[in-house]
Specification:
162 residues, alpha+beta, GTP Cyclohydrolase I, domain 2, 4-stranded antiparallel β-sheet, two-stranded antiparallel ribbon, 3 helices, elongated
């Protein structure tokens, strides 16, 4: 090593709960890293609700989607086929909304969750929020939030992160 070159920095990270550092490509790093894809505040109109009037006129609905997976080994390698595509998720939500009347926001959220798990079977967790916006004059929104954890390692991480 020449006099002017610096030695590569070593980064030490302790794997959660193990007290051990792991080495990858000569660098120390945590054993599990998470990647999240989020869609926040998607507003669509759809036929949703149990009341007769809700069968006739579309309502504005706000949707949030979060998909979580273990980060790929090379997360910055620019390979589009390896990403969780938010545009695909947005189009799935639009398609579900366009299928016809849905009675419950819970049903809508479940359908979105099912479509996401079919499209991305390796996800570790997901969160889906569906809110009806204009239901009550004095309430901003009413709705449901689904949380699904498929990877026990993520469940431990999410509990400590909250």
């Amino acid at each position: 090593m020449s006099k002017n070159s610096a030695a590569p920095a070593k980064v030490m990270a302790i794997a959660s709960g193990s007290g051990k550092a792991l080495v990858t490509n000569g660098l120390h790093r945590a054993s599990t890293r998470w990647q999240r894809v989020r869609i926040d505040g998607m507003i669509i109109e759809c036929l949703i609700g149990v009341h007769e009037c809700e069968h006739q006129a579309p309502q504005r609905v706000s949707i949030d989607v979060e998909l979580v997976r273990r980060e790929p080994d090379d997360p910055t390698d620019e390979i589009y086929a390896r990403v969780m595509c938010y545009e695909s998720v947005i189009n799935m939500v639009r398609d579900i909304a366009g299928e016809g009347h849905i009675k419950l926001v819970e049903t809508f959220a479940e359908r979105i969750a099912e479509a996401c798990t079919l499209k991305y079977p390796t996800i570790s967790a997901l969160n889906i929020t569906v809110n009806k916006i204009d239901v009550f004059r004095d309430v901003a929104k009413v709705g449901v939030r689904l949380e699904r954890v498929f990877d026990p390692a993520f469940e431990h991480v999410s509990e400590t992160a909250s």
